[in-house]
Design goal:
InterPro entries: 2-thiour_desulf, DUF1722, UCP037004. With 332 residues, the protein is of the alpha/beta class. It has 13 helices and 8 strands. Strands 2-1-5-8 form a 4-stranded parallel sheet. A 4-stranded mixed sheet has the order 4-3-6-7, with no helix packed on it.
């Protein structure tokens, strides 16, 4: 299986280093010259930053379905809900060829334990959204999805996916990468032990993270864990996973994160003196006002977690849901 730079497993709070985290990616984003003109779209953030913590599985639909490099450029035409893939000058239709290859490729990828995929934006094969589809009048509408991207997302509807362009938005980037690591932890949990005890432990360790996304869905997830008995663990897993992924797809806003910060502060009300409590409140208020990034109050709280050895918080993934080297919480 093709890979990029060697993986550096991420150490997480009170846990050993993780096993490899595999992420699918459009091959051109890794700097490989596979585009129609023999070029690439190397994304340095993916290879030089995120690539230190994941192993990429590259996919180039055009090359892998048998089209050469260089090749005639293609575009989507017709109905945006079911477009055709045709070459721009000679009008050769590669729709069935691409769809047949994609159907087989997604089944191959199903065996690789992927935790997500990064697609090439605007691509007629790999664009995740807003791909141009040309109508009979020759005018495009930005309502299409690349043929391979569509097949992939239909096969893996719960897998975290993004486009490289959208990852320039720091909030979308943080949400996507947080979901990657969450997906991996879930994957490790259910593959290691499918018991109610393991599900309950997973839920307990992710309560604050889930709270930062949706208190409503946190309550619903807690109800799944508490209401379904040991004899029905498979039903609990089947109900829990899609709701969890739906929860974390909601953005962790400043307001939600502030609520979690204040909740965590409550665990230290018997330990901190008046000055320390005031300092912590001021740091949280600066974050809420947009004057400090989230990493500032989280760092201070992590200090108190270590100092006072608070067992519940020591196990909470919210305090470090992804490698600190990615600096995803360093933006205001």
């Amino acid at each position: 299986m093709p890979e990029t730079a060697p993986l550096t497993p991420a150490a997480t709070p009170e846990s050993p280093a993780a096993t490899p985290l595999y992420v699918g990616v459009s091959t051109c984003l890794l700097g490989e010259p596979v585009r129609y003109d023999g070029g690439h779209k190397h994304d340095r953030y993916l290879t030089d930053v995120l690539g230190r913590f994941v192993r990429f599985v590259p996919v180039c639909p055009e090359v892998e379905c048998g089209l050469g490099v260089p090749r005639e450029a293609m575009r989507l035409v017709g109905d945006p809900a079911a477009p055709r893939l045709v070459t721009q000058k000679t009008n050769l239709d590669h729709t069935e060829r691409m769809q047949a290859w994609a159907a087989g490729r997604v089944e191959e990828l199903a065996g690789l334990d992927l935790c997500g995929f990064v697609f090439k934006s605007k691509s007629p094969s790999s664009g995740m959204e807003r791909v141009k589809v040309y109508g009979e009048n020759g005018h495009p509408v930005n309502k299409g999805v690349g043929l391979f991207a569509r097949a992939f997302m239909e096969r893996f509807p719960l897998l975290p996916v993004e486009e490289e362009g959208r990852l320039n938005d720091v909030h979308l980037r943080e949400n996507f990468i947080e979901r990657l690591f969450l997906y991996k932890r879930w994957q490790d949990t259910v593959q290691r032990q499918r018991t109610m005890a393991s599900l309950m432990e997973f839920h307990t360790r992710h309560k604050l993270l889930l709270m930062s996304h949706s208190q409503e869905k946190l309550r619903a997830l807690g109800k799944i864990v508490s209401d379904i008995g040991n004899a029905d663990v498979e039903a609990a897993i089947a109900a829990y996973f899609p709701l969890m992924m739906d929860a974390v797809a909601q953005h962790a806003t400043v307001k939600k994160q502030r609520n979690v910060l204040l909740h965590v502060m409550g665990y230290f009300k018997k330990h901190l003196d008046a000055d320390e409590k005031q300092e912590l409140l001021e740091v949280v208020d600066r974050y809420a006002a947009g004057l400090a990034p989230l990493i500032v109050p989280v760092t201070l709280l992590n200090h108190y977690v270590r100092k006072y050895r608070q067992p519940y918080l020591q196990a909470q993934w919210w305090l470090q849901p992804h490698p600190v080297e990615l600096a995803l919480r360093n933006h205001a």
